[in-house]
């Protein structure tokens, strides 16, 4: 009876999208449920999936909000 | 000093409601805090409760987003 | 399809017990599942409960590990 | 920069195993990281995965500890 | 490779603010990442931080929604 | 009334240590509670901290269990 929580930033993966689409979310739910079936033999019906979308200003890495972190990485400045 | 996290889908439990009401949330907070007091003798004051409302398209079961899962269950089709 | 996570310190609620007993855990699971049924009309079968026991040295309050915090509270020293 | 948390009961999926094996865990980590790459174009390197193994007496469903719940399901008694 | 989750109520810390500001969030991300570096020698780059803002009606303490709890504390009524 | 969850791998930060020490944990609890006080004016007493130690085989990055990931990074092989 697995529970899978997927935390992602709230932003699009394609131009023009501002967040993961319903289709992308459905693909995550399907994929991870099938993974639990394949690897641990957990019935699809017993796996719960929760997708948690986090605003980019609420996500940090490298001591910085994620958008600043990415700009820093891209600029080649030392970390 | 318990912490209780209650994750529910963001939808109403009664016709016309689109989410749990403030009264329902207060009843969850009261009920679960009293449960910890009754079962484990934890003072009410030391229990924190967080209710996390999850959009239905972000909640999966049976490999499907929850609304599709429910339609499938109701239609009697094999799982 | 609620998910309830109950985080408690790993310690007994009665003399001689070093952790919540299986009976106490069963009572938490039963109580919180019935609460979701009563308040939000969620079927018992669709509620998952996870109890997470946390070692006391891994739990902090008031800027202190919880056992130090309790000693400080009981000694009446200013916080 | 996704974070995926996979909560499973601490029990084996094959005879003689008392928990998921290191190989099964590695397969979960690989599979879910590749899923995020495929669906949302997240680089493998930016996905963190945490597997949280929960003792069966700490996992509840249907208002019961999970092992009791399974026995009830298998016995065909009304829920 | 630590993951730090900071759950706070969605409310301002200064007059006129209705939530933590982007600057306050950046200060939390910076501070906690540096703490992990100082205490456990974790490189800044390997620490992920997620800030989870919770509506006040979804946060409970003392068996009450947090705003009621605070009014009760301030009024000096017995808990 | 913040709740801070710090997830770290269960391993030592100094030679001979197999996990974070009680002193290191106390420093994390103190540091993060003071950070919430400094940045958001949250009283020390109202911040809860939970440290969650995760076995290295249960932690993944780059599609690999973390110890394999680190070896790969150090060997300079392409990711």
UniProtKB/TrEMBL annotation, chains A, B, C, D, E, F:
GO terms for molecular function: isomerase activity. The active site is at residue 2. It holds the Pfam family Tautomerase. Transmembrane segments: none annotated. Residues 2-67 form the 4-oxalocrotonate tautomerase-like domain. SUPFAM superfamilies: Tautomerase/MIF. Its EC number is 5.3.2.-. Keywords: Isomerase. NCBIfam families: taut (TIGR00013). Belongs to the 4-oxalocrotonate tautomerase family. This is Tautomerase. It comes from Micromonospora sicca.
């Amino acid at each position: 009876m697995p529970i899978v929580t997927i935390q992602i930033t709230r932003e699009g993966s394609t131009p023009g999208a501002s967040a993961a689409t319903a289709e992308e979310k459905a693909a995550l739910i399907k994929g991870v449920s099938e993974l639990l079936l394949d690897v641990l033999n957990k019935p699809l019906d017993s796996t719960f999936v929760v997708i948690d979308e986090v605003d980019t200003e609420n996500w940090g890495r490298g001591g910085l909000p994620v958008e600043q972190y990415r700009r820093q990485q891209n600029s080649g400045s030392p970390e």
